[in-house]
């Protein structure tokens, strides 16, 4: 490689550029799509950080490299990256690889446009609105607004900002000086982005009042009512409740009808963080888990999770029809949003968001939906529920596993109980010793490259595994492998 002639630039050389891209696409097909989705290959090729730095040769130099070197760089990046499309990657709330969504991502990246004006993104401005319209219809709204955001955390933050602006529109110009002490409410099982958003928006994390959850992780509406009363007694002004449909660890769904009743009584904005659970709306069998979501003012929904649309694909949906997004975030930049254009300037949607440049996130979902149809996506959701149920029943057959609770979603939480602890459940140090098992097994599986599955403590519970059944390519054989592999990895503990 060191003897190769450097190729300083492909600028202006269309033939060489095309040859490079064909070679790169070939590597991607072989190493990511074919090998990365094969159960016979490793999920990851673990290396310690210092070794990995050396293997990748990360330093940026003045001289360019040859095409052969660049292709080898691509191979190395893929070789040492985690294959999230692998059928044994259970680590996050996203996984799998949908070929139509990937095709959409490739086209999106190749066109390299920004989703702010019809002028430069005519196809995607129209497409985004159609996709958002479809998602809103599944929520239960015949009209409304929305936007694709760079992740569910930002969607949640937008909801807080919109609710604040609706209550106190002067805050856009006058800032925090225009505001009394505010209070927003969310479950103790909420995503951490709610507190981060409150800090980022200047409300402070103290403004977030944590509502108690029951033993299954669902918000308790009676405690929400109590917390609102306490906040008012302290001189704060309640303005928003953020409920969760599909909590990160337990996969719990808050009782939206009851929460909506509380919000209606107190005149509060109801936001539903359905980043994880929103895709359940596609299933006629399971959508009852989100009963009441149509009463929300805003909904966050990430199709890149359960639907495998690919990172990132995060929608913020609004019931509002008063152009609240634009009124709250718009700044009327005259070099982008000229009002005397030759087309309908209402199609220039960029002023709805805080960003200027905004990537196109609708094509991958649109193309996948075109290919699968709503029925195909519904089968995908139902299959995930069915496999989660199969895993639970198999867990119960083995003394090596203990369920944390019966799941209502596709998060299956459990402990692996090693041989040394199977007869010691009543011992004083049982919980402490059991909590040490998951980190050991996680290290072993990652170093071996056989699979990846997340673990965490939760409340008073010690570390347990959270299995996420989301990859549409999963089968019962993958569920069996998971259990067998954990038994192999932990047989000496």
UniProtKB/TrEMBL annotation:
Q: Which CDD domains match?
A: DOPA_deC_like
Q: Can you quote a single GO CC term?
A: cytoplasm
| Entry-linked SUPFAM superfamilies | PLP-dependent transferases
What Pfam families does this protein's entry cite?
Pyridoxal_deC
MF terms from GO for this chain are:
pyridoxal phosphate binding; sulfinoalanine decarboxylase activity
N6-(pyridoxal phosphate)lysine modification sites are 305
Instruction: Name the cofactor(s) required for activity, per the record.
Output: pyridoxal 5'-phosphate
PANTHER family named among the record's database cross-references: CYSTEINE SULFINIC ACID DECARBOXYLASE, GLUTAMATE DECARBOXYLASE-RELATED
Q: Which family does it belong to?
A: Belongs to the group II decarboxylase family.
- Per its record, how is this protein called by name? Cysteine sulfinic acid decarboxylase
Species? Neophocaena asiaeorientalis asiaeorientalis
């Amino acid at each position: 490689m060191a003897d190769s002639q450097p190729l300083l630039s492909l600028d202006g050389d269309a033939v060489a550029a095309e040859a490079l891209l064909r070679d790169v696409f070939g590597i991607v097909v072989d190493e990511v799509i074919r090998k990365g989705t094969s159960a016979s290959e490793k999920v990851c090729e673990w290396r310690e950080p210092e070794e990995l730095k050396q293997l990748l040769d990360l330093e940026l130099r003045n001289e360019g490299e040859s095409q052969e070197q660049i292709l080898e760089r691509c191979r190395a990046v893929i070789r040492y990256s985690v294959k999230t499309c692998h059928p044994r990657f259970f680590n996050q709330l996203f996984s799998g690889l949908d070929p139509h969504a990937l095709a959409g991502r490739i086209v999106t990246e190749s066109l390299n446009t920004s989703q702010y004006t019809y002028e430069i993104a005519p196809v995607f401005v129209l497409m985004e609105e159609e996709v958002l319209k479809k998602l809103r219809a599944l929520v239960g709204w015949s009209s409304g607004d929305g936007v694709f955001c760079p992740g569910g955390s930002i969607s949640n933050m937008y909801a807080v900002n919109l609710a604040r602006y609706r209550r106190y529109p002067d805050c856009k110009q006058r800032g925090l000086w225009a505001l009394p002490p505010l209070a927003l409410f969310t479950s103790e099982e909420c995503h951490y982005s709610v507190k981060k958003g409150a800090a980022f928006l200047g409300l402070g994390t103290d403004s977030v009042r944590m509502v108690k959850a029951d033993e299954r992780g669902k918000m308790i509406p009676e405690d929400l009512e109590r917390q609102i009363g306490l906040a008012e007694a302290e001189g704060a002004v309640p303005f928003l409740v953020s409920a969760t449909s599909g909590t990160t660890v337990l996969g719990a769904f808050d009782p939206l009808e009851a929460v909506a009743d509380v919000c209606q009584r107190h005149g509060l904005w109801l936001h539903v963080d359905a980043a994880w659970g929103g895709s359940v709306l596609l299933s006629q069998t399971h959508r009852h888990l989100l009963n009441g979501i149509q009463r929300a003012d805003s909904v966050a929904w990430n199709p890149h999770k359960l639907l495998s649309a690919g990172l990132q694909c995060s929608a913020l949906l609004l019931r509002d029809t008063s152009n609240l997004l634009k009124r709250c975030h718009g700044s009327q930049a005259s070099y982008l949003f000229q009002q005397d254009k030759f087309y309908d300037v209402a199609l220039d949607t960029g002023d709805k968001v805080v960003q200027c440049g905004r990537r196109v996130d609708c094509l991958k979902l649109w193309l996948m939906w075109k290919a699968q149809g709503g029925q195909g996506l519904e089968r995908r959701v139902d299959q995930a529920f069915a496999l989660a149920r199969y895993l639970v029943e198999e867990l119960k057959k083995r003394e090596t596993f203990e369920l944390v609770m019966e799941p209502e979603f596709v998060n299956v939480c459990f402990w692996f109980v090693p041989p040394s602890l199977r007869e010691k459940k009543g011992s004083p140090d049982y919980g402490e010793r059991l909590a040490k098992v998951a980190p050991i097994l996680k290290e072993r599986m990652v170093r071996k490259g056989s699979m990846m599955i997340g673990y965490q403590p939760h409340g008073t519970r010690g570390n347990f595994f959270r299995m996420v059944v989301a990859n549409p390519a999963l089968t019962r054989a993958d569920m069996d492998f998971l259990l067998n592999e954990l038994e192999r990895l932990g047989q000496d503990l």
